[in-house]
Amino acid sequence: MNLSVQLGSLQMQNPVTVASGTFGYGVEYAQLLDLNRLGAVTVKGIRLNPVRGNPTPRTVEVTSGMLNAIGLQGPGVDGFIEKYWPFLRSLNVPTIINIWGTSVEEYAEVARRFDAVEGVGALELNVSCPNIKEGGAQFGTDVNLLRQVVSACRQATRLPLITKLSPNVPNIASFARAAAEAGSDALSVTNSVPAMAIDSETRRPRLANVTGGLTGPCIKPIALKLVWEAARAVRIPIVGMGGIQTATDAIEFLVAGATAVAVGTANFYEPQTAFQVLAGLQEYMERHRMTDVRELTGSLRAGP
Amino acid sequence: MNLSVQLGSLQMQNPVTVASGTFGYGVEYAQLLDLNRLGAVTVKGIRLNPVRGNPTPRTVEVTSGMLNAIGLQGPGVDGFIEKYWPFLRSLNVPTIINIWGTSVEEYAEVARRFDAVEGVGALELNVSCPNIKEGGAQFGTDVNLLRQVVSACRQATRLPLITKLSPNVPNIASFARAAAEAGSDALSVTNSVPAMAIDSETRRPRLANVTGGLTGPCIKPIALKLVWEAARAVRIPIVGMGGIQTATDAIEFLVAGATAVAVGTANFYEPQTAFQVLAGLQEYMERHRMTDVRELTGSLRAGP
Amino acid sequence: MIERTVQILANERVADQYFRLVLRAPEIAPLVQPGQFAHVRILRLKEALLRRPFSIFQVEGDTFSILYKQVGKGTEVLAQMAPGETLSAIAPLGKGFAVPPPGGETPLLVAGGYGMAAMYLLAKRSPQKGIVFVGGRRQVDILCADDFRELGWEVRIATEDGSLGSKGLVTQPLRAELERTTAGRRLYACGPTPMLRAVGLLAEEFRVPAELSMDEHMCCGVGVCLACVIRVKSGDGWEYQRTCTEGPVFDARQIVWEGQP
Amino acid sequence: MIERTVQILANERVADQYFRLVLRAPEIAPLVQPGQFAHVRILRLKEALLRRPFSIFQVEGDTFSILYKQVGKGTEVLAQMAPGETLSAIAPLGKGFAVPPPGGETPLLVAGGYGMAAMYLLAKRSPQKGIVFVGGRRQVDILCADDFRELGWEVRIATEDGSLGSKGLVTQPLRAELERTTAGRRLYACGPTPMLRAVGLLAEEFRVPAELSMDEHMCCGVGVCLACVIRVKSGDGWEYQRTCTEGPVFDARQIVWEGQP
Ligand SMILES: Cc1cc2nc3c(=O)[nH]c(=O)nc-3n(C[C@H](O)[C@H](O)[C@H](O)COP(=O)(O)OP(=O)(O)OC[C@H]3O[C@@H](n4cnc5c(N)ncnc54)[C@H](O)[C@@H]3O)c2cc1C
Ligand SMILES: Cc1cc2nc3c(=O)[nH]c(=O)nc-3n(C[C@H](O)[C@H](O)[C@H](O)COP(=O)(O)OP(=O)(O)OC[C@H]3O[C@@H](n4cnc5c(N)ncnc54)[C@H](O)[C@@H]3O)c2cc1C
Ligand SMILES: Cc1cc2nc3c(=O)[nH]c(=O)nc-3n(C[C@H](O)[C@H](O)[C@H](O)COP(=O)(O)O)c2cc1C
Ligand SMILES: Cc1cc2nc3c(=O)[nH]c(=O)nc-3n(C[C@H](O)[C@H](O)[C@H](O)COP(=O)(O)O)c2cc1C
Ligand code: FES
Ligand code: FES
User: Fold this and answer.
1) Is B16 in the pocket of ligand 4 (CB under 6 A)?
2) Minimal Cα–Cα distance from A182 to chain D, Å?
3) ipTM here
């Protein structure tokens, strides 16, 4: 049974990775999990310099999901390379590094820095963060900015680039195409959905940041539709994510058009989720007499 | 205690209505509920001519919510007036008629037709339906089309107009402003969220229409944020909706900036929801020594 | 139609995956007509919100019962519930079977699986006794045949694996009976859609009237959401009608089978 | 840190809204250090997904127990669970209290509400016996004082309504004791943040070392999500550190109280 998949030149032994920001830098889970059984480790978003992040509360539980507004706390490129890279480099599975910036130039600079680091698996471009230069717009919701970011990173590195699209657009197909045309090797679909929670008794927002990103099983139907739409728009592979907690969920993403899947919020409540997904996927393939996981990708039987 | 609110010239005895498409034409619930206790009855979307709607399955249950792709089945303006209007007219509470069209002209024509009908409370413009003339774009996701629809309806009727915004945009504020500028008296926020469900065993979509709209408690945090954003962009009142199933939920929408709220999907599993919301709201106001429900609107205490 | 909190009096396995649930519902029970259903909310099903529709099986004093098969999330939780616990029910709902008048037609009932549940009240309230044709995959799928026998009805069983009654589909003994005579007979059927379709075709072939209880996925159960529609002939075309309101029982001649499974 | 399915051996109300839950966890129990916590998944909580953190109260053979207060969705469902049912626990987690070495400092423990739970193992494993200062709103909020007395510790109680011990906040008897002597003493505290802040200020005022166990909302519990951070001094500024990993126990001098409730 073949479980291996490719995202551009990134080889994964199986299609199951974890979502950025839900798995730290891998090392935190090393005591609980055999990381070498994953398809890849995806780490928390890094920009050039260290970032403190938002005040607390940073997360709040909501119906079948959660909100977060961590504010991309992180050690910056140098801090990451010093503190976390030696461990990640020692794993037998590739690391996908999630990167972001506040300008096109910063994205490109971060990409350039990692291009010089031996052994990086791929860069995932998180384009759903506030764009300081453009005055509050987001790279992920302006198709021209998205194109610029991807192009600039493409010029800065030969590493596989995975562009992580925002769910918050009426037409994800055009963003998918823009990313592909600008040289992205793959897409990640989707990031968290803008949302908010209020404490009715105090009439205060439940997050210090007021708004945050909704994730978990509640967003699965939204994410699935975005994957399906993006997959029909481009030929590059897609990493599907958004509310995956079982193998069945993961298979739905593959069928909708994903080549790989990422487990996010579910790690928080069940760190074994990625392995449960993998085991369930193998069981499913046996039951359906499939020999290659790629048979599932985009195999939706639509029409009567 | 004052519970009454106004949407333009529409007077509601209390701020609780029901969401279009989740309450039929009112008459279906007449045996179970005392409709005269609602703030208003909002009916299923009507276009000019009768509409058959989509093939089945039209709904599917998902985690903490459901998908629907009814396809706006309805009797058309004449059918509605003949079959349902006499009953609705006999109620002591106003009826909000949800209308749609496939062109700007059709919207205006439907508005004109209802302008001539004695006793209509308000028209709610559903702009999240496919725009046939413009080739698949949606009135609700193109700010210029939205402006045209609202303007045309404004010219066609003096009835209060409530524009129902789509959640599927990165910047609801600009849509809210466009609707207000074009003459909308109020906004409804929000419609269902585009989504999809797949049966992993058969690899078929669970809806005959492949995609549908996600509603229910799972979308509440998304809807709440959209209401908050829209309320900060305009001065016209907002009807908040999306996943309301308790008084606490409703109060959150009011605090975020809504003047009234609508109960949608919850009607399907608990037809008493609107009354439970109303009772809980009164209890809350007593407990917090509030004398006017309008004190709640937009009372979010943000900042440290 | 009323909505009430109803208390579980009994919830017992009758066979394999089938359970009988008895509910105390003094205001609902007297209203029930044969073929109507209850729309049940299982509050413990937290992240699955919708009500589940079940035919009303028997009515006894201030109780009614349902006969359900454990097939998914809701029925699984239901099967774990104990006497004393409560559910919410909206009932009775829908348009049921037309009970033949005294001296009227002789009913031939056709049921598959839990379809038997929808037919018991009809058998009980029909002034003429008739024959029940019951089908299922295996012996365990043949439910409550004795309940019908106690009413003095004849029961003819067919199982696909031949483990009880004749081997094959339930439409085979039905066809045999119709070949014997059709005069003064009326078909009533409830079960999986392919069975209903087959019964509908037999009714057409033999020109006997037939009432079919359709099993569509439901959402509101009361006619507001338009989820549960089937195609029904109208004028020289068809229109969608609601299984929960215009149905679940439809005249077989009216049903457009295209688009049905 | 390991993840295990753990079985409930007992789950009993100890007072008012407080319960004691005993779990069979042979692999976890031996690893526990004072002040560490378990991150517990209550599977029956369907639409509320996250684990809940609870200090590990007592360790006994192959079991550990927690003392919890019923405050919301999760603890409400927990309170309904019966022996034999299971939970998932990731434990032991976090950096706990530094047990003083033999002949080292005399511990003064300060606890509010369920904060008592975090301190029992410390009292038990400390070579020097000390004093426990316990505070609460009413008599029922004073938990497990006898457990500490059985260890030979002195317990001083303060309640806000005066229904047990002295009337007022727990920091009043603590201040009195510190005014008597500070030599060779070390403070350990666990409870609501305002109490921790007050203890921190006393420690500063009297120049005694203090270890505070901070109560922040958690998500992953293992250091990956960065939800649970507090401000901690670093260089000439501050940085966010994780309560679940660098804490929950922090040196009082390191905590930046700005931004804390
Ligand atoms: C008018 C009518 C009468 C019925 N009478 C009976 C009866 O007497 N006994 C009995 O065992 N079952 C009966 N059913 C079917 C019963 O409603 C389903 O078996 C039940 O809803 C399954 O719920 P679940 O949560 O266990 O399954 P899940 O598969 O977890 O349910 C998911 C969703 O699909 C719906 N669904 C799944 N299967 C069906 C189905 N066959 N029909 C309609 N909706 C379905 C559920 O209501 C729910 O919304 C009847 C259905 C209808 C429409
Ligand atoms: C390190 C640590 C040790 C703790 N030890 C104990 C203990 O020994 N005994 C005890 O009774 N409680 C303890 N708590 C608090 C306990 O975690 C909360 O009371 C519990 O999570 C509430 O869950 P709920 O579902 O009942 O409440 P809900 O209000 O329904 O929970 C909603 C969300 O808020 C979180 N939350 C709510 N209150 C708290 C809180 N005070 N601290 C952290 N998260 C919270 C929940 O984990 C959940 O994610 C501890 C907390 C921490 C951080
Ligand atoms: C606490 C938290 C932190 C996250 N941080 C990042 C991040 O740094 N970069 C990024 O691209 N996505 C981040 N995400 C988004 C996830 O990678 C993922 O896209 C999203 O959570 C949807 O998947 P899920 O529903 O399975 O969690 C974060 C999500 C959560 C919950
Ligand atoms: C079955 C169904 C049908 C709907 N039909 C309409 C409609 O005809 N017109 C409209 O504007 N909105 C329609 N909606 C959207 C609702 O009015 C409402 O905006 C949405 O369901 C969000 O609220 P909720 O989460 O409380 O259901 C429909 C929703 C559902 C579930
Ligand atoms: S189930 Fe809603 S109309 Fe029939
Ligand atoms: S709770 Fe996730 S880092 Fe502490």
Assistant:
1) no
2) 32
3) 0.96
